[in-house]
Structures are given as C-alpha cells and as structure tokens.
Amino acid sequence: MTPDPLAPQIGGRPIRRAGGPLRGMGGRLLTAAAAGAAAELAALGLIAAAAWMITRAAEQPPLAALSVAIVAVRAFATSRGVFRYGERLAGHDVALRAQATTRERLYEALIPSGPLSHRGADLLSRMVDDTDAVQDLLVRCLLPAVAATVTAVAAVTLAVFLLPAAALVLLAGLLVAGLLLPAATAVAARRWSARLAPARAELAARVADLVHGAADLAAYGAGEQALAASAEAGARLAALERRRSRANAAALALGTLVQGLTVAGIVLVALRAGIGQVPTAVLALTALVSFEPILPLAAAGERFAGVTAALRRLREIRATPPVVPEPAVAAAPPEAPLTVQVRDLVVRHAAGRAAALDGVSLTLTPGRRVAVVGPSGAGKSTLLSALMRTADFESGDILINGTAIGDLSPDDVRERITGLTQDPYVFRASLRDNLRLAGPEADEEELARAVHRARLDTWVERTGWDATLGEDGRTVSGGQLQRLALARALLRDPDVLLLDEPAESLDGATADALMADLLDVTHGRTTLLVTHRLHGLEGVDEIIVLEDGRVVQRGHHDELVATPGYYRDVWRSEALTARTG
Ligand code: ADP
Fold this sequence. Notes:
62% of the residues lie in helices and 9% in strands. It is an alpha/beta fold and 581 residues long. It folds into 2 domains: 14-318, ABC transporter type 1, transmembrane domain (ABC transporter transmembrane region fold); 340-580, P-loop containing nucleotide triphosphate hydrolases (Rossmann fold, 3-Layer(aba) Sandwich), CATH 3.40.50. The protein has a 6-stranded mixed sheet with strand order 6-7-8-3-9-10, with helices on both faces. A 4-stranded antiparallel sheet has the order 2-1-4-5, covered by helices on one side. Strand 7 (496-500), helix 17 (508-521) and strand 8 (527-530) form a beta-alpha-beta unit. Helix 3 runs parallel beside helix 5 (123-162) and helix 3 (26-58) runs antiparallel to helix 9 (277-290). Adenosine-5'-diphosphate (ADP) binds next to helix 11.
C-alpha cells in the first residue's frame, strides 16, 4: 500500500479525526450530551434530596417541612428515566448516523483505488469492525465523559456550599477515578494490544494451516504436531488474555476503592467540622452517587485506546491517494463509437521497478478486435488496467476519440471501457441478481438475451433464475463462471469490451469452446482480448505479442504463425497438445 504521509500527524489527534463524520450533527450531539448530563444530575439530585429528606424526617419535623423534598424526590426520579431514555435515543441516533457516514466515505475512498486485492487482507475487518469504533467513541467514550464531567462539577459545587474542605476531598477522589484511572487504562490497553496482536495472529495462522492444509497433514501424518502447535498458540493467547483481564479488573476495583475512601474521608471531615447530621448525610450520599458516572470511565479509557487505533486505520485508507488523479475539470464524456489510441505507453507499478509496459502502442477503431498475448508477467493485464484507469501511466498517452484519457473523469472512462475481469466473482445472490450487477435496469428479455449469447441457456434453465449462487449456494463450475462473467459483460454492453484471460484455469476442451463462442459473440464489437490461448485467434483483426512489457510481434494470425517467435512456438505446442490429448 502507498505509505500514508498523513497518518503520523493525525495519530496524535484522535478526537479531531472523528470530527469529520460528525459534521452537521452538532445539534443532535448536543441534545444527546445534554440529556445524558441531565440524567446524571437528576440521579444526583434524587440522592441529595432523598438523603436530606430521610435524615430530616428522623428529627420528626411537621410534614409540611418535608413537602418540597417529597416533590423533588418524585420529580428527580421521574425525570431521570425520561432523560436517560432521551440520551440513549439521541446518542445512538447520532452514533449510527456518524457510523453510516464513515462507511460511506470509506467506500468512496476505495472505489477509485481499483482492485482491492492489493490492499491487504485486513481490509474487510477494517470496513466492518473499525467503523464500529466511531459508534463506540460517541456512545461509550465521549457522551459518558461529558455526563461524568457535568455530574462531578455539580457534586463539587454542592459540596463547596456545604463544606469547602469536603469539596476538596471529593474533587481529589473524582480526579483520581475520572482522570488518572482512565488514562492509565488507556495506556495499558495500548500496551496490551501490542502484546496480544502477534499472539492472536499466530493462533489465526496456525488454525488457517490446520483448516487449509488438513488433507496434506492427514496424508503425511503430521496432524498431531500441527494440532499441538495451534493448541500451544491458543494457550499462549489465553494466558495473555487472563493477565490482561486481571489488570483490568484491578483497575475497576481501584475505582471502587477510591470511591469508598473518598466518602469515608468526607464523613471524617464533616464530623470534625461538626456541620450536623443532615448536611453530613447529604454530602456523603451525594459523593457516593457522583462516582457512578465516573467509575465506568476506566473501562471507557480502555475502549478509547482501541477506538483511536481503529480510527487511525480508517484514516490511513482514506488518506491513500487514488491511483489515478481526477482531472481538475473533466472533459465531456466521449460519445460512441469510440476510437482508442494507445501511444508509446509506459507503466511502472512502483518507482525503481522495471516498467510493466514499455512503449506500447495500439489502436482500437470501432468494431475492431485486437488480441494481446504473451507469457505470464508480460504486462497484458497492466494494459487493461491502464485502459480502465485502475493503473496510471508514466509516459505516452491514451486518446479516446482524440481526448487524452487523463482529461476525462475515470468513472466516465470505466463506464465505456470495461468488461470481463481476471477473477470474476459470484456473489451470494440469485443468478438473476448476479447478472443484474452489470445492468440493474435490465428487463427479463435483456437478461435472457445476454444469457443466450454467452451460451448459458441450458444451465440457466436447469438451475433456475432464482437459485442462490456463491458461497454456501449452488456451486458454479469454472466454465459456467466465465460464461456468467461474459453474460455480465454483454449485458453492460460497453463501447469497448475488455476481456481478461477468459479461458484462464479452464481445461482444454472447455477453454476452446468458450473462446469459440466468445469470438463469435464479439464479432463487430470493439474488443481488446487478453489471452494465453491462441486457439481461435485467426478471426481477430490484430494480434499483439508482449514480452517484458514490450511489443515483440504484431500482425494477423497467418503472419505470426509464419514467423519464428513466441506466437508460433505456443501455437505449435497447443496444436500438438490438441492432437495428442
Ligand atoms: P500479465 O497479465 O501479462 O501476466 P501483468 O500485467 O499482470 O502481466 O504484470 C506485469 C508486471 O507488473 C509483472 O512483473 C507484475 O509482477 C507487475 N505487476 C502487475 N500488477 C502489479 C501491481 N498492482 N503492483 C505491482 N506490480 C504489479
């Protein structure tokens, strides 16, 4: 992945990073924070009023003297529930909205970056788990912290009026439990995750070996050893997890201890000052309750460490520049029919590496079919990537109806120049929906026509349009998969059809049948076909042979089989295999 120049600077400013998805939600956030704070204040008021009422009642005053306190207790008790409900509603509303915005932005950042396979295996977990972190940041860290701060300020203020010395003790206790402990758990969580991550990765790798290598392990009787190795990795991780849980539990217990000590200290100070029973009870109970929103902050501190790491990972993805830059002002999209001219194209995948394409030129006029052949690594797929704008080029140019491709919006280009990708994917969806991916508006007739042209009719009739394909669904053979992908490409009907190794990984007979149908159906269509099989290429207008990124031969099939070189060698060996096989 391209190194992320922004990540280190952003690393130190976690809250600001979450500010992005919250833009325009200030009102909702404020409502949630206010409702949360109000709920905590009501709880504090409830205890203060109740403490006052009970201790005062013990002095047996006339009932009228208690009536205000009775009303206050009822009002605080009811309003606490209402405020808590409001906080949950508003808090989750804003958190879920922020999460949705984060996901949307992440997808937007990924789309122009081309194939996802080059972006690391953890991308999926980033997209799912890390975006949950935005929700946790708000609901489990930010809003509770606001409510806890408001409660602490209110409790200390009340204590100042009753006995300033007690207020000092309370302030000290609240600072330890609400600031020091959460900061310590956040730091500890960061350290623990650095220690746990390799242990977790080790276990995942061992289990993956067990699952994917089960047949080989069984064949060579190495199962016991592999099982023991993964059990050991599991035990190591469990031991670390146990130690972490003990440390966390200790931090939480420490909070409760601080709470107890603070209340005891306040009672002691109040008794010494001799302020009387009622204020002492009010002080002690208020102090006790003021810790309630403070104590969970230790756990929030731990989560905060995870949240900031998740947000940093998301930021890294978003900060990765797209592989091809958008033009400042995009030229008008080209109108069909398209003529594509590739001139002296040089593509280098990374600085300092050999060019994957080195001075390649070709012209695709409307209706012309060009095949690109060559050994693996010759640069064939790179040429298609350059045309689809999923790879940029270093020099040379690609002109579409005379307009430089760089002046066009990459989306406009991909809409017109696209087709069958190298590893077509079957989604876990119905056969119909798997096709509609390429033409969401297509009606039944258009779908049937595409299926017919890809020679998939019999299979579709047997399988049924509504059969679920993909993972856990009906298995699709290699040949059917390629034909399905071809049907998709035909349904999309791009101005320039790109076909990347359609016969890849198919056996000889299936590959030949597919190539024959494919060449039949592309007749009269502007097509660029990348293939390692030469069978059937007699019908295309031009064949370009690439080796090490350079064009080494070009011409019609008849010319190429008459000339010594890669094309003639492969052609002969294919013919030999066909005869002997
Ligand atoms: P072909 O399709 O002919 O097999 P490719 O176009 O896939 O060849 O690859 C040409 C060269 O570029 C190879 O050396 C390959 O390793 C390299 N290459 C292809 N794609 C990438 C990429 N995304 N990043 C870095 N190198 C790449």
